Amino acid sequence: GASSDHTSQLAYNADSASLYGSLYHYPPTSSADSPKRDVYDWDSGAYLGHIPESESTTYNVVGNCNEVGLCIGETTFGGLEDLCETYPGSIVDYGSLIWITLQRAATAREAISTMDHLMQTYGYASEGESFSIADANEVWINEVIGKGKHELGSVWAAVKIPDGAVSSHANQARITTLDWESPDVMYADDVMSFAKKIGLLSADVSKSAFSFSDTYDPVTFEGARFCEGRVWSFFSSVMGEEFENQYVDYASGKNLTNRMPLYVHPPSKISLLDTFGHMRNHFENSELAFNEDVGSGAFNLPYRWRPLTWSYEDKNYVNERAIGTQQTGWNFVANIRGSLPKPLQAVIWFGADDSATTVRIPIYAAARELPKSFVGKGPQDGVVPPMMKFDVDSAFYVTNLVSNWAYSRWADIYPVVLERIEKFEETYLNQLLEADSKIMGLISSGDKEGAFKVINEFGVRLGDAFTKSWFSFFGELFVRFRDGYDITINTADPECGCDVGGNGYNDETYARIVEETGDQYLEPGSGLTGKRWETKSKLKLKAML
Description:
alpha+beta
């Protein structure tokens, strides 16, 4: 495979300014507990209806992984407006589709079949979606769109990512032509005939010419720049400069015909920590980098506040949309380790808030107990999360404290944050391996109860301890980087026990100030040679430092 340890990896950012960062938990259940399952729309919280509960006991689900090693992520691509309209009576939205499938399916292929059954039986109640579906042996991309006002259900196409390859999607449908006879391709029976039926395709279009994306979600400037740009940044990071240069015209929206492949084969193996790093990408050192122009401010901030588009003097402009972005509610990197016993296979490394500023906590998907500072319910459960209540015991708000403080002086603060993030995650990885060993020993000795005790306590201990520690870290950052200074500890200093420093702004910012203001801030006599006044410089006064 493409991973350095021959495991499956799946990374995901849940981006929405209205999304509260909670880790969802669905314990095992069955129709014996309740004959029906209520379904709420994940995006709006609206009640959609109910479906029969599973007759057999469902799997335990933590976040977007289940206890037998299946994980699912998604991005919404929308698609044709006509097909975004929900058919009357449709019940299963894309969020519920994920969590119901995780409760009922054990493998990626079974998940695709389960999703198809749910959508065709109860109706699909969302816009077009790309789903990443992974188990210990396979990773698939499954792209789905509803049938609008025309029919109940959906059309879809799924492609298995080959061993040794990596793929990505970011709100633009990416599956184009299909190898119709391949065992590694699945699709709805009417994926092409439905398009012909409603007039999207002419009757004489052949199978070889059919493209799912070009039919149901044709790429536009927005799809390329805001969506495929993210894919390009990741692919370029693992493939190198040649790939970057080959597709930059597409990623920038200048050449929509130069489409990238669905997957690439990186020349080097990718570790779990590498994947964490890729999820912190802001187009750095690329043609789409935006951390050095005037919009990045005096501290090279690689973020732009929404909206994504803006106008000036009757011309429209864009902000870049990087992988690391401020409106992420929660994110995860799932690691599925097929060589381990089932209860240990799926580990969800879960983080709240921005994937560039968060610390990911490893939690076994078999865990029945989760850290209080992370666990919660969401709109898909018919629950309004506590978005408008600040809470220092909430991982979501504690991570937001650190990230938003870093945004204020990125060039100064983020290097300190990143160093701490990497230290935490390396430590957690070592602790996970130690826990694996201990749990396998208990399983081997027949002590299943003891094994699950360790599984449960591991995530709870790490998660809640992290939230307290990260809040303390925010305090460190606030003390050090307040009022524009960089104040560090110096126990030998008798006045404050500190050294007060700071570099002001960068040279580019000073150059802009001079260019825009001319002599407004010019010091009289500046640049002249010869003796200056004997009066002590006011700049040496303590009040000026």
